[in-house]
Amino acid sequence: MVRRLLLHGRAEVRLTALKALALVAPAGDADAIDAASDLTQDRDVGVRLGALRALTELAVRGNVCALTAARMQLGHDLPEVRLAALHALVQLSLQNDERAVCAVTQLLEDNEDSVRQAAVGAICQVSLKDDELAVLAICAHLTNHRVEVRQAATEALALVSTRGNSSALAALGALLCDSDLGVRQRVRDLHARLSIKDTGCMPESACISARTLPSTDADLDSWSIGDETDEEDESELFVGRWDGGIGNRPRIDNPYAPPVCESTESLRDLHQLETDSMKV
Question: Exposed e or buried b for every residue in 253-266, given b needs 16+ CB within 10 A?
Fold first, then answer.
C-alpha cells in the first residue's frame, strides 16, 4: 500500500508515503532503498529532499544504491538539494571512501558559500587525518582562480592535516605569495602551524635571555652590558652595573658622573658618608 502511494500524482501524497516508508520498512530493506532512491530524482523538490532524508534512515553505511543516488544530487541546481545530498552522503559513506572524498572535495568549488562551508566540515567526517587522498584532493583546489575557493580549500586542509605533512606544506608553500591578503594570512598561519616541531625544549631566544641574566650575588657586581674589550665600541659610554634596583635590572650610568664603586659594600659606605654629611 505504502509503496503504491509513492507513485501517486500529487507530490504531498508521495512525500507522506516516503515518511511512512522510513518508519515501517526495516533498515537495509533493498526494495525500500530502491524506491527512495528513485524519488531522489522526483520533479518536486520537496519530494527529492524527503527521499534523501529517507535514505539516511533506510540504508546502512556503504550501501551502493543509496550512495549513488546521493552523489547524483550533488550537482542539482538548487543549493538546498545539494546540501541535503551532502548530508546523506556523509551519513551513508564509510570512512575514507575514495568516491565520497572526491565528491565532497569537489563541492569546495560550489557557487554557494553555505555549500562550500558544509563541504569543509564534511571532509573531516569522510576522511582520516593526514589521508594522502584527501590531502591531494584538497590541494588541487588551492590553485583555483576564485579567492573563495582557495580560502575554503585552506580551511579544509587545516582540518585534515597534522604537523609535518609534506604534501600539505608543499602545496601551501606555493600560496605564501597569493594575490589575496586573506588567503595569504590563512596560508601563512597554517604553514607555520604545520611546520612547528614539538621538541619539548625552551626556545632559543628564551635560552639566550636566561644565559645573560645574573645568577649569583657575585655576578651582580660584575655584570655589565656590552663588550668591554672593544675600546672603539661606542656602547662603552654607557656602562651598566648591577645595583639591586627595582625589577633587578642594570642601571645605565651617566658617563660623566664620578666613578662608581665596584662592590656593594663600597656602595653602602658611600651612601653612609653622604647621609652623615647631610646631618652635619
Answer: beeeeeeebeeeee
